[in-house]
Amino acid sequence: MMSAAAMAASGAGAAKSDSLSLLSPDKRLELTFQLSGFGEPVYTLSFDGQRVIDESRMGFDIRHEGGVNDIQPFMHDWTIAQSNTVLHPTQMYEGFRIDSVRRTSVDYTWEPVWGEEKEIRDRHNEMAVYLWQQTGADSTDGRTIVVRFRLFNDGLGFRYEFPKQKTLGYFIIGNELTEFNLHEDLTAFWIAGDYDANEFLYEASHLSEIAGLYPTFDRSGNSCICPMPVPGVQTPVMMKRDSGGLYVNIHEAALVNYSAMQLEVHDIGGGRTGFKTHLVPDALGNRGYIQTPQSTPWRTVIVTDNAPAVLESRMILNLNEPCAIEDTDWIRPQKFVGVWWQMFAPGQGTWSYTNEPNVQLGVTDYTKTTPNGTHAANTENVKRYIDFAAANNIQGILVEGWNQGWEDWFGQFKDFVFDFMTPYPDFDVAELRDYAKSKGVQLVMHHETSGSTVNYERYLDRAYQFMKDNNYSVVKSGYVGAIIPRGSHHYDQNTVNHFLHCIRRAADYEIMIDAHEPVRPTGLHRTWPNYLAAESGRGTEFESMGETGNPPEHTTILPFTRFMGGPMDYTPGIFQTDMSYYDSTSVARIHTTLVKQLALYVVLYSPLQMVADLPENYERFYDAFTFIRNVPTDWDYSKVLEAEPGDYITTARKAKGEDKWYIGAITDENARTAVIDFSKLPLTKGKKYTATIYADGEGASWDENPQSYRITETIVTGNSLLEIPLARSGGVAIELR
Predict the structure, then answer these.
(1) CA-based diameter of the chain, in Å?
(2) pTM score
């Protein structure tokens, strides 16, 4: 820590510094920054002259600065005094002075490889504040850090930068101290802080109520949990003023070589609640290992006066680096079916080939085991899916359970679970490769790691080469279970680096990634567009796991929370919504109408969309399935026509390179009318479009009559307005051509 003499020399305890101000291009947002009397960095954020974030501190608690030879000093209850490393704790939260300020403005347009728009505008004003912190009695002893602010019309991004310098080379973060002290007691849509899981249902409560609700937050259904030890939430967290006119979203952008940010909840007095950054620790309790030069991820605060503007914000993407892949022609948005839901629908299939409880790769001879007769990933069954995909404009076929090791893959803390190359006896790699190629489709690889990142990295290059050799271009990876190295977490710095390593290495092999159970996205798909989608949230699979499932409001919250950082592989398209269809004792069901499942393909954006149900269920409702066959996964233009978190969303999108439009509207448990105003869309002037409307039918509802739908056609122009009733947890899907 800084000595008292050094603090006095640096001006600690003196008057506050002059306030620095930064305005957004439209001047509606204002950031202020200053140093407190103790030299503490402090910022505020206002919108239309009204405070959104009150004075909030910035900085770091440094657990150790300098070299490390032993881990003993970092271990709890270590009683042996001998060590080659002596901890040198310091701080980066007070004793600063402003050395210089640099300002710039940016306004340009860039084209994503794929996305919700053909072009994205990046327009912001920037202020970089260079801070000097004296660290010794001599005035020349000190270091520089930079706080870089970017203010957009729709929000604020800021990060810390640590330049390379003689006085700052290596340090270990005890915690980041960045605060977000909200001025009002807003209603928040939140999930509880957790180091390993985020597939939860969202709570909706006032900020002041979070701490009281935290101890009883429902984490059931997740395979591996590690609750944050103090009340807090994960990001993205969505907030709104009950009376309207203010919407706030806090997250982070460009999470690289750093632990994920979660937020502790604090009562800051006056009926106000504040968030304080809580980085996910590793097994030693350390929260970040820094070697200069290095920057933190951007901390993001989206602020708007209407809900659709939150969903239309591209600020998080704009804060990420440009595309790092020179040739992107091999990256292709697509739809895929899969041998997947068959293992969730009761009694339809299993991942495992045999029922033996204890298997070892390279030791167990599967040709001598007794098949269980329920293994879904067999050659003939996969061919059936290939035929269905080829006939219905679907590019890929995911196959889970194709490889050896599924009999005891989970819950054993087992390191060597899979080798990602050895198939079960009833899965013929070469035959299926050639058959899929002859049909013009590709198999989608599945790499479940069971949380063993060390084992996956052992095999990663061989596994990716196996894919290239057998005509796979997309891999769905999975990290179910506790992370190995044991003691690590899904969202700590080491595992975050593992996820990005896999993405980068996949790009070398021209492989696209669909990651399940990774850290939630932070816009890195701009930099690495082969990272098509992630799960990192509660998807359709939970609908098969009991009565709770995903309640009707769930998909009206996800776009404001999980989707803010990037596309989600939610796996929509389930037509057989009542699981008692397969097993009369099942109480599980999809909490939507059939038509809402169609609308999700528009509302829940992803360039990689699963057509998740069994082929035979689509054949039963083939006229409705036409919408899924036709709907694209890449867009020229998107517009949110109406939205309110937790209640409803209506979204319109224009197909990439075509004058075709697709509209999806969804609602929560309440029936309502979707208002579709075509004057808000840049339709071709004077053109008459044929609109095919897939709507909830007579008496439709998610719980009593989910498969009631009607399909009609009408003519619309740029002056048209449609008002379409939505059933309880229902929807509408429209194709304009």
Answers:
(1) 83
(2) 0.96
Whether the Cβ atoms of residue 587 and residue 544 lie closer than 8 Å to each other:
no
CA angle at 595 for the pair 590 and 599, rounded to the nearest 5°: 100
Q: How far is it, in rounded angstroms, from Cα 626 to Cα 618?
A: 9
Residue type, 306: N
Cα–Cα distance measured from residue 570 to residue 592, given in angstroms and rounded to the nearest whole number: 14
Q: What pLDDT shows up at residue 1?
A: 36
Vertex 427 angle, CA 421 and 433, to 5°: 75
Rounded Cα gap, residues 192 and 736, in angstroms: 41
Instruction: Tell me what pLDDT residue 4 has.
Output: 34
Helix or strand or coil: residue 554? helix
Rounded Cα gap, residues 192 and 198, in angstroms: 8
Residue-by-residue DSSP string for 76-139: TT------S-----EEESSSEEEEEEEEEEEEEEE--SSSS-S-EEEEEEEEEEEEEEE-SSST
Kind and range of the H or E element at 514? strand 512-516
Peptide bond into 215 cis (omega under 30): no
Q: Write the single-letter amino acid at 295.
A: S
Give residue 128's pLDDT: 98
Distance, CA of 585 to CA of 604 (rounded, Å):
31
Place of tokens 């109408």: 593
Q: Which residues pair with 289 in a beta bridge?
A: 172
Count CB neighbours of 265 within 10 A: 25
The whole-angstrom separation of Cα 695 and Cα 264 is 43
Spatial CA neighbour of 133 closest among 88, 178, 99, 161: 99
Determine the Cα–Cα distance for residues 194 and 201; give it in Å rounded to an integer: 13
Element (H, E) at 654: strand 648-655
pLDDT of amino acid 431? 98
CA distances from 704 to 549, 586, 594, 622, 728 (A): 16, 16, 12, 21, 10
C-alpha span between 631 and 614 (Å, rounded): 19
Please state, in angstroms and rounded to a whole number, the distance separating the CA atoms of residues 370 and 352.
11
In this structure, what token pair is assigned to residue 338?
């899969």
Cα 353 from Cα 406, distance rounded (Å)? 8
d(CA 304, CA 461): 45
Residue 260: which residues within 8 A CB-CB, separation 6 or more?
252, 279, 280, 491, 492, 496, 519, 520
Report the amino acid identity of residue 479.
Y
Rounded to whole angstroms, the Cα distance separating 161 from 175 reads: 16
> Using one digit for the tens of pLDDT, what is the confidence trace for 518-546?
999 999 999 999 999 999 999 999 999 99
How is the beta sheet containing 20-23 ordered, strand by strand?
20-23, 29-35, 41-47, 50-57
Low-confidence ranges of the chain (pLDDT < 70): 1-14, 76-83
Question: Strands 247-253 and 334-339, how do they pair?
Answer: unpaired
> Within 10 Å of residue 305's Cβ, how many Cβ atoms?
13
> Which residue type is seen at 718?
G
> What are the angstrom distances between the C-alpha of 600 and each of 293, 628, 648?
43, 10, 12
Which residues are tagged catalytic? Answer: 541
**Residue-level pLDDT at 69:** 79
In contact, 477 and 447? CB cutoff 8 Å: yes
Q: Are the C-beta atoms of 619 and 628 separated by less than 8 Å?
A: no
Take residue 53 and report the two structure tokens written for it: 């974030």
Supply φ then ψ for residue 716, to 5 degrees.
Answer: -130, 155
Task: Give, for 595, the enclosing helix (H) or strand (E).
Answer: helix 594-603
Alpha-carbon distance 724 to 727, whole Å?
Answer: 10
